[in-house]
Amino acid sequence: MRWCRLTVTGQDGTVLARTVLQGSGAPDLGAVDEVARWALWATRVGASVRLGDVAPELAELLRLAGLAVHVEGEPEGREEPLGVHEGEEELHPGDAAP
Fold first, then answer.
1. Does some domain include residue 98?
2. Who wins on pLDDT, 42 or 97?
3. Residue 93 in domain
4. Distance, C-alpha 73 to centroid of its chain
5. What are the backbone angles phi and psi of residue 9, rounded to the nearest 5°?
6. How many CA atoms lie within 13 A of 3 on its CB side?
7. How many domains is the chain partitioned into structurally?
8. To bridge 5 with a disulfide, which of 30, 52, 78, 92 should be the other Cys (CB 3.0-4.6 Å)?
């Protein structure tokens, strides 16, 4: 089952990566983790993540995890930009400094 198409685009519009997230059943937290990892990498390199053909189950899990898919402007080809909400990280004893 296809859960979504994921595209990482640089600031100049260059496609840096493109993949399809899929699995044998409904998406789970592993799929959310995969999207979050791509979004984190994209943020670190100054790029953006766009999701297309998002399965309703995955969209709901992303919303519950705080990785809501937001429509900014008019989506192209049913793709929606991924809005990643920034938050403060909590340091614990033994954690490496950021």
1. no
2. 42
3. no
4. 18
5. -120, 130
6. 22
7. 1
8. 52
The answer to whether residue 91 is domain-embedded is no
The two beta strands, 2-9 and 15-22, are antiparallel
Q: Which of 79, 53, 70, 64 is nearest to 29 (CA)?
A: 64
Per-residue pLDDT reduced to its tens digit, 72-94: 333 455 555 555 433 344 445 66
Q: Which amino acid is at 73?
A: G
Tell me the residue type at 78: R
Residue 88, domain member (yes or no): no
> pLDDT for 39-74, tens place per residue?
999 989 999 888 988 899 998 899 888 885 532 333
What's the Cα-to-Cα distance from 86 to each of 18, 60, 64, rounded to whole Å?
24, 19, 15
Q: Which domain holds residue 17?
A: 2-81
